[in-house]
Amino acid sequence: MPGGRVCAACGCSEIEVDAARGDAVCTGCGSVLEDNIIVSEVQFVENSGGGSSAVGQFVSLDGAGKTPTLGGGFHANLGKESRAQTLQNGKRQIHHLGNQLQLNQHCLDTAFNFFKMAVSKHLTRGRKMTHVIAACLYLVCRTEGTPHMLLDLSDLLQVNVYVLGKTFLLLARELCINAPAIGIFFYELTF
Questions:
Q1: What's the whole-number mean pLDDT along residues 135-158?
Q2: Which SUPFAM superfamilies match (predicted)?
Q3: How far apart (Å, rounded) are the C-alpha atoms in residues 42 and 40?
Q4: What is the three-class DSSP state of 25?
Q5: CA dihedral of residues 87, 157, 126, 19 (deg, nearest 10)
Q6: Rounded percentage of the chain residues whose pLDDT exceeds 90
Q7: CATH number for the domain whose boundaries are 80-175
Q8: Alpha helices in 13-104 (DSSP H)
Q9: Which of 53, 140, 150, 167 has a CA positioned 20 to 30 A from the CA of residue 33?
Q10: Prediction pTM value
């Protein structure tokens, strides 16, 4: 870190500042030197592509405000952490709901793979996570031939079956998954 700071615990001068978490940690001993780094004078600027980004200076406890500025790296790290958190929450919810349906581990893993594909294609944006997870589980039920109906998932989640059906059809189409339709229900949904 610029400015020549030294760790009070071990005397090491290699201090790592993590803008996303807002802390400063000594790489020598692992001591947290600051955990509430705040930003003063935040401004938003427009870049050449028409997007905007935040620009500012970190203010540390000792008042040295010449640490890294907010910019592209700050937002990129948040996106990676957010995606990892989304996948972790999705996996947990898939296992919870899948266990209620008594699906085997292969089905749960396949549903999670469908969920990862949906996240990578941005199909989760603007949709409730529970609806996407239910649709992924139902995709597995259809492709693996399990005896579950969309109504089972609807009952468990207390969600309108047509809302889940719409999400299911969207995922099947966008992920190019040939899920055999059963019953008159899908005839009603597609028209």
A1: 92
A2: Cyclin-like, Zinc beta-ribbon
A3: 6
A4: strand
A5: -40
A6: 39
A7: 1.10.472.10
A8: 72-100
A9: 53
A10: 0.56
